[in-house]
Design a protein that fits this description.
This protein is of the alpha+beta class and 674 residues long. Helix content is 17%, strand content 30%. Strand 1 and strand 2 form a beta hairpin. Helix 3 packs antiparallel against helix 5, helix 3 packs antiparallel against helix 8 and helix 7 runs antiparallel to helix 8. The chain starts with 7 loop residues before the first strand and ends with a strand.
Length: 674
């Protein structure tokens, strides 16, 4: 159906039609209550081919309304007009990424634009939502240059194992030019289809053309299924090898050969945009003015040797340096120094000599990790600044072990790094994307849960071997916590809270049922368990020994996404993904206050991660608005806001000595006192 200018849908008044597609028509409207413009997408009634469409649409709209990410166009409302469903979304004046295409974009610029979109998709995937129609027309670019992902209108809401999907399978829904092979064939799809589609977008941005073109949409689909990918370097000269590798991996025909998660693709795009690299650990220290980045210090010896070698060739002095093979090798036109982090190429002149003995790559075994000069506390919060960045092999699941020995990172494979040097030690073959992990108090064990499984794996950090598997959940495990003495582990999922003996893997007790995506935390003395995920947004304090109820904490803004006890156990903080974070007294159960930003610099304050400093004087929060906030937990006062990060914050934590605040945002951002 068509809406007329001036027509009102509830408290929304239509201003103009913005566009029309095969499934829906989009209008600009005025919210008469809040006096702001919104976008209204009305689904065409002739697209309602199934009798249960309206029910499925309502369920999908509710799921999408829970997505709160700075690079996702937010669903504000939904309804129905004359039998046609509609959704109300944020309105962003400006164009789309499609408007910028037609000629090649610089590869670093393309990666910079897409990294936030990949982060947004990763966030949606963690909430069990697949976009299914990723394309340039669905990437909005605001007047300020912010990129926003829109149109989850054909999203598939993933159900727990064994449940029926909300969106019918067996139908290839999407745009043929960006459709993954399995999607074009009408097969059931996973998050990997979005990875493929974003790879196509990356290809098109860099080359200025789509990889497959044909006379009919079906012919394009068949090319995606059957034809080899035309190499981008055949179109664009001088394209770094790592950039092309990233495209080929994202666009692999077999989903198993693509990036294991969108988070890993986001990390690769972030690295490419900054360093021209798609993989491999990389450290950058943020020194004081004039200081060299740490990667330059660690890789600098190799780089200097390479440059000196080239100079010595022209001076005939290479033999004095004892560089083997300098006067041999094949002729080449240039020596690339891109992989050292220095953009550009270096001409070797004529005659040109290859340098087989010189490796121009950043080192992966630094001598010391960036670290503050003293612990971070409320007293010095005003002096906190970024001291470094760390790209592990995969940009997620960065956690310090409580004993200070290890730093973890990874997804389908978890890597253990030396916390003091950030040198890679070993990897754990987890087999699929890890969504939650936690170290035992002594650092000897690492517990992991995967997004596509209902079990928990316990790994030995000493040798990377799997110790045992905890089975019994029927839903994805979203909460993990070791008891302070390391003898027990609590696991939480939508079906139950379970507590297990670590020594033999036997279940001690279980509490059911739960709701949402519950989280869990032990009190510092081990006597209590804080568990979210109950009806009416209640957080319960349970007796850790047997799971019996102690008291209920009410007044939470929404289902808690992160809970944390203060080091002395007197306070409990719960973040709920919105603008109000609750703080309770654990003895009385009374809510003391909300943490509220008195002068927010973003449209939506989105806090879903919390952590206390080791001394308990400082509380740190992070989330979907990209901001890191430092609070006084005694009174809720905002002490500091750390800006400049452009990615959603997935986790916040402190090193055991309190000298590093670690912020997971695709890469690991490291803050401290310089």
């Amino acid at each position: 159906m068509s809406l007329s200018i001036g027509q009102e849908l509830g408290h929304y008044q239509v201003v103009e039609q913005l566009g029309e597609g095969g499934m829906a028509t989009v209008y600009k409207a005025l919210d008469l209550r809040l006096d702001r413009h919104v976008a209204i997408k009305v689904i065409r009634r002739d697209a309602l081919v199934k009798p249960d469409f309206l029910a499925r649409f309502e369920r999908e709209a509710k799921a999408l309304a829970h997505l709160s990410h700075p690079h996702i166009v937010k669903i504000l409302d939904y309804g129905e007009v004359e039998g046609a469903p509609y959704v109300v979304m944020e309105y962003f004046p400006g164009g789309t990424l499609k408007d910028k295409l037609g000629s090649p974009l610089p590869w670093a610029e393309a990666a910079r634009l897409l990294a936030p979109i990949a982060s947004a998709l990763y966030y949606a995937h963690q909430h069990k939502i697949i976009h299914r129609d990723v394309k340039p027309a669905n990437v909005l670019i605001s007047d300020s240059g912010q990129v926003m992902l829109s149109d989850f209108g054909i999203a598939k809401v993933l159900e727990d194992s064994g449940a029926t999907a909300l969106t019918a399978t067996g139908v290839g829904i999407g745009t043929p030019a960006y459709m993954a092979p399995e999607q074009g064939q009408g097969k059931p799809i996973t998050c990997s289809a979005d990875i493929y589609a974003l790879g196509v977008v990356f290809y098109e941005m860099i080359t200025g053309r789509q990889p497959y073109q044909a006379d009919t949409p079906m012919a394009v689909v068949l090319k995606h299924v059957n034809d080899p990918l035309p190499p981008p370097h055949d179109i664009i000269d001088g394209l770094p090898e790592d950039v092309e590798k990233a495209i080929f991996r994202a666009m692999a025909k077999d989903p198993r050969n693509r990036y294991p998660s969108m988070g890993e693709f986001a990390a690769a795009l972030e690295r490419i945009s900054r360093y021209g690299m798609a993989a491999g650990p990389l450290i950058e220290a943020q020194g004081k003015a004039g200081a060299l980045p740490q990667w330059a210090i660690y890789g600098g010896i190799v780089l200097v040797v390479g440059i000196v070698a080239v100079l010595c060739i022209s001076l005939g002095l290479a033999g004095a340096l004892g560089l083997p093979g300098v006067f041999g090798g094949s002729r080449t036109k240039e020596v690339s120094i891109m992989e050292t982090g220095v953009a550009g190429t270096m001409s070797a002149g004529e005659p040109t000599i290859a340098l087989p003995a010189v490796t121009l790559k950043p080192t992966v075994a630094p001598t010391a990790a960036p670290r503050g000069v003293e612990p971070i506390t409320a007293a010095n919060a005003g002096s906190v600044s970024m001291i470094g960045r760390f790209f592990g092999r995969v940009g997620s699941n960065y956690r310090y072990s409580p004993d200070g020995r290890f730093l973890s990172g990874g997804s389908s494979e978890i890597y253990l790094y030396d916390a003091q040097t950030l040198a890679e030690i070993r990897s754990l073959k987890t087999g699929s994307g890890v969504t939650e992990l936690v170290f035992s108090p002594d650092g000897s064990l690492l517990a992991t849960s995967q997004g596509d499984k209902t079990l928990v794996q316990l790994w030995q950090t000493s040798d990377g071997k799997l110790l045992r598997v905890l089975e019994g959940h029927t839903g994805q495990v979203t909460g993990l916590a070791f008891s302070p003495d390391g003898s027990r582990i609590a696991t939480a999922s939508v079906d139950m809270l379970a507590v297990w003996q670590v020594s033999d893997g036997l279940q001690v007790y279980k509490v059911a049922p739960m709701y949402g995506a519950p989280t869990v935390a032990f009190s510092p003395d081990g006597s209590l368990l804080a568990v979210s995920g109950y009806e009416n947004l209640i957080i319960k304090l349970l007796k850790a020994s047997d799971g019996s109820p102690v008291r209920q904490l009410s007044g939470s803004w929404a289902h808690a996404t992160s809970v944390a006890f203060s080091p002395d156990g007197s306070l409990l903080v719960a973040a709920s993904g919105g603008d109000r974070t609750s703080v309770w007294n654990t003895q009385s159960g009374s809510r003391l206050f909300y943490l509220e930003d008195p002068a927010p610099t973003v449209q939506y304050v989105l806090i879903d991660q919390v952590a206390f400093s080791p001394d308990g004087s400082l509380l740190v929060t992070g989330g979907g608005d990209n901001l890191i906030r430092l609070w006084d937990p005694s009174n809720g006062a905002l002490l500091r806001t750390l800006e400049g990060n452009t990615q959603m914050i997935q986790h916040v934590s402190f090193s055991p000595d309190g000298r590093v605040l670690a912020v997971e945002a695709v890469e690991m951002l490291m803050y401290g006192i310089q």
